[in-house]
Amino acid sequence: MYKPGVSNITNIPKALAIQVEQVTELPDALQQIGLQGSRPTLVIVGGASGLTQEYFTTLQRLFEEKIAPLAEKFQAYVVDGGTDAGVMQLMGKARLNSGGTFPLIGVAAIGTVILPESENTFADAAPLEPNHTHFVFVPGNNWGDESPWIANVATSLADGAPSVTVLINGGGITLTDASNTMRVNRPLIVVAGSGRTADRIVAALQGEVADEQVTQIAQFEKLTAVKLENDFHSIEKAIAQKLSSN
């Protein structure tokens, strides 16, 4: 069962939100909050609380100069983890600062986020990013419980349209996000030079010894590695190609 989308599920007045329990509920639930019609879909995964200032300023430019404008150009659905940290915060602020109109959907495990009148006792519960337009709350009380749902929500939203996951920086949960991207056979762009998990995957792709999960991801046939260059041209080109492919 799902609960009808209402704005007061969150403390973000303009955002629509819904809570689901089963994957089979997603198509109807997404329609309940106004997300209907197939369109290109961009999934953002990567660094959250572990994203250091070393990378933050450069990535802020990437999101504001390239990723948000691309999402606007394609009027894509953009899907991420929805909390006010790391790449999710960067995505939300980039949409705001660029005047974007594309839907920005946060998918979060209900027990890991701070909600009005919530009795959440999770010590690391996080606030929601305030510039997201929609939230889908899914079962779970631990970070990473949302990972398979992010992949499933994006698949339901795209509904046959082109989609791509962009992986930037990241920790252990980002590996799970990448594995779930592989599960649904979605193309994966890994941004080399963005640090941590992204660079581990690229190193394995280049032949360095890595653990089993990283090695499997590096061998994914739909993986593309692009370098974090100053003008971001390679990243922009790779994302645009995936969002416009059939």
Automatic annotation (TrEMBL):
Domain LSDAT prokaryote, residue spans: 39-230
InterPro entries: LSDAT_prok, TRPM
UniProt source species: Floridaenema aerugineum BLCC-F46
Pfam families with a match to the protein in the record: LSDAT_prok
Name the record gives this protein: LSDAT prokaryote domain-containing protein
